[in-house]
Write a structure and sequence with these properties.
Radius of gyration: 22 Å
Distance between the termini: 10 Å
Number of helices: 9
Largest sheet: 8 strands, mixed
Strand content: 25-35%
Length: about 425
Amino acid sequence: MSFIEVSPDSDFPLQNLPYGVFSTADNPRHRIGVAIGNQVLDVSVVRHLFTGPVLQGNQDVFEETTLNSFMGLGREAWKEARSTLQQLLSSQEPLLSNNKELRSRAFVPQSEAIMHLPAKIGDYTDFYSSKNHAFNVGCMFRGPDNALMPNWTHLPVGYHGRASSVVVSGTPLRRPNGQTRPDESQPPVFGPCKLFDFELEMAFFVGPGNKMGEPISIDKAEEHIFGMVLMNDWSARDIQKWEYVPLGPFLAKNMGTSISPWVVTMDALKPFLVPNVSQDPKPLPYLYHEDPFTFDINLEVAIKGEGMPKPSTVCRSNFKYMYWTMKQQLTHHTVTGCNVNPGDLLASGTISGETEDSYGSMLELCWKGTKTVDLGNGESRKFLKDGDDVIFTGLTVLFNYCNILYQKEVPDSGRLYWNQTIS
């Protein structure tokens, strides 16, 4: 229990403690914060209380305006910081709870916090690691016999995305313009995207990283994975269809990629580890690991159009469906000697399940425009309309633990949130 009041339905109990970067109207400086109850702990104010063997000489990382330097300290520092935070916020610890003056400076109501990108993202990579999603898309364009490309079950397929347009919840996002070819017998035309889509994804931030020329081995990969966010890699499907051959997505993806402001650490998610998906054929030795590194996170997507009384659920999926693990993604990314740095972002790709109601994009749900998705009350969709709210919700349950991850996105404003509860 924390001395900070945490309601039973709060997304931020003592077991969570996600990191973010915030400011306030009266103090525009970006600061590192930790969510607890309906409050944000300004870690810069209490940095002097991190007196463990790793952090005592590195307290200055909590004065910075992003999490990059803290991410770069590595796993021992992350574990020590989490332990210190749980002790400081505990109902049994008087060091902070009994210091009225320090408490008044250290806590900010979440309602007053303006959230920012948690890290300076130098590079962003998007993978294509859901076998169900890859098979579905392959079926649409190549048929079931050739749905998966020959390399897909041998390596984590991915591409380098545009880091400059990764944005935090609340950043305005507009429907893009571009070239499309709606009539394949005619030349392309220029105009606004007509097939705008969401992609249900999760992503992780890189920790210390590696030097150029020194790959991260599979047995060391976990030491470089700091924590996870929810992600929507917004997609202009009609632009993508015309441009992607032969090099893949370009303008169809670079108009904006939204991530949640709170980063949930891997230590907070550890209670929800589940066995990895069986991989056939067995990966090459540099990619093979037996220890579980997949997480049971039930994901839902709902759409609330303008004038609709409530959201309508269109998708129920789960992160555990991912074929390639985060360890394998990071190891493959660096096997050439490619260097990754603190704050780099690696995304899962669209997360789809096996049933039609578990598909993680409108492209799949409407099956390339051949079906409509019923939202109730006379509302239906094939792709997103301006003003639609797209709500991502995740729930993981293990014994008496319950995580809730919540993400809300709006195509014309780009709103996106992530909360989590363990109770």
